[in-house]
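Batch manifest line 331
LIGAND: 6-O-phosphono-alpha-D-fructofuranose
JOB: complex structure
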Amino acid sequence: MSKIKVGMTLDEFIIQEEKGYPNASGDLSKLLRDIGLASKIINREVNKAGLVDILGKIGKENIQGEEVFKLDEFANDTLISFLKYGGQCAGVASEEEDEIQVFNNEEAQNAHYLVLFDPLDGSSNIDTNASIGTIFSIVRRLSEDTITEKDFFRTGREIVAAGYVLYGSSTMLVYSTGNGVNGFTLDPSIGEFCLSHYQMKTPETAKQFSVNYGTIAHWNQRLKSFTNWCTLENKEEGTPLTLRYIGSMVADFHRNLLKGGIFIYPASPKSPNGKLRLLYECIPLAFLQEQAGGLSTNEKVSILDIQPEALHQRTPIALGSKKLVEKFLSF
Ligand code: P6P
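JOB STATUS: finished
ARTIFACT:
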C-alpha cells in the first residue's frame, strides 16, 4: 500500500518516491527541495510586492530585449544562490542570464545536475497582480569534463525532471520526474508545500482554448481555421469553446493542465520562431503536458523532439488536451 497521501509535505513525498529507486543517490531529491525552498523565498517577495520597493522596472533589458523587473532579478538571484550552494547543481541556464553560469565553488564541484529556468515568467503581469510563475527543467551533465553549452542543449526526451511554481491565489509547485505529474500547494501556516494534486491528468478534450487574438493578422491558415472551428456553433463537435488568455504562460498552462484546453503561441513575421523560449519555457511545460497525457507540437514535431541549438532560441508552440492538439494539427 503506497504511503503517498494527500496533505503530505514535499519532503515526505520525495522520500517516499525515492524508496521506489533503491539505487537513487538522493541528489535529485535534494535538488528538488532546493528549488522548493528558493520558490518559497520568491513567493514571499511576490506576495508583498505591492508593499515594498520591489515592483517596477530596473531600467535595463535582458538578452530577450524585454524590460527587466525588480522581481525578475530577485527571483533569478535567489534561484542561482540556492542552486549554487545547494551542492547538487553544477550550473544553470536562465532567461535572465546572457550565458550559461557554471559554478566553480567548492559545493558544486561534485554536482551532477544542471538546471534551466525562467525565474519569473509573466513579468509584464507583476504590477497588475496577475499570476506569474517560475519554470524549470533539470538535466544531467554530459560528463565530468568541463561544462559547456552542449550540456544544456538537450531534447525534452533527455531531461530528468521539470516543473513550475505558480504564484497565484495559492502558490503551487507542480513537477514530474517522468512518473506522472504531482502538484503541491504551499500551506503558509507551516511554510511547507503539501501534496494537493496526485498524478494530475489533462482531460483528453475540453471546452476552452488560449491564444492572443491580438496577433490574428499574422496567423497561418492552420491557426485561422482551427480558431474558426473553436468558435463555431456545432453540438456534434462540442463547439464553441471558451477563450481564456491570461498572458502568463504558467497560469494559462496550469488551468489547461487541470481542466483541459489548448494553449497556442504561434510564429509571426516579427517573431519567425514565435516568442516563447524552447529550453526553459516550452520543453519543461511540454514534458509535464505529455506526462499528464496531453500533447505538444511546433506544428511539425513534438516539442520534446526538437534538438536545441541556441540557449535562448524560441519556438512556436501548441500544447494541451490530446484531442484538441490533434484537431489543431488536422487543419
Ligand atoms: P503576449 C509573458 O511575457 C510571456 O512570456 C508568457 O508568459 C505569455 O504566455 C506570453 O509572454 C504572452 O505574450 O504577446 O500574448 O503578451
